[in-house]
């Protein structure tokens, strides 16, 4: 493919400032759309070539423009009746950001959080519905978005400041970013992992921490929470088995566990209802001391 990257057909009309190319019969790449023009999705559908490309050197600019376009589309779709569309756009945003995590691909995510917060942040019912809605084939993206929605709900319920709620929500959206560097067969599989596979899977929190630190864009608390979100207060978690955890890590770890049990069915584990899940986690709080009692109580209240 040389120095050219194929663009998804559904995203062709989002590009204006990035030039697009197509393949001529000779096999050479030729300019299809110049910089400064946008493809009309409806009018140009019949004449559009089957495959459209960008130059490798334009990839960072393309990601930035795509994310900005997604955020604009998201803002226009934030209506009480538009939850399915909002979830789909959010999946596109997260998918593009996580494809090759970098400063360029992640820098628009804070704006995404702002858009969702401004549209749904004070509406508990819509946040619950957003967390409960799902897409059929993008469970990894669903999980990140659902965790973000519940975290935003928690922040609003507990009267945290808008800035803190946004920061926590962004942390939730990014908490599993390390999985982008793992074998997809381990991340997406429906079966129980072998011990060796699970050892590899457990590296995702440390990998995610390093990705966020490498960007140099985000607050240190976000990187720390990503590193610690599978740690537990009794020292039974991973990757380091520590017991002194940040508030952010405790909250995201708790919501991550709740969302996973209520939305992720495996061949070896059936889905649990919210009530069953909270009772199970309650035992981990009271009997095992894995989670903070106050955070758990507040989560139960905001989910009621």
From TrEMBL:
Record SMART domains: HDc
InterPro entries for the chain: HD/PDEase_dom, HD_GYP_dom
SUPFAM superfamilies the UniProt entry points to: HD-domain/PDEase-like (SSF109604)
PROSITE patterns reported in the protein's UniProt record: HD_GYP
Annotated organism of origin: Desulfoluna limicola
Entry protein name: HD-GYP domain-containing protein
HD-GYP domain segment(s): 118-304
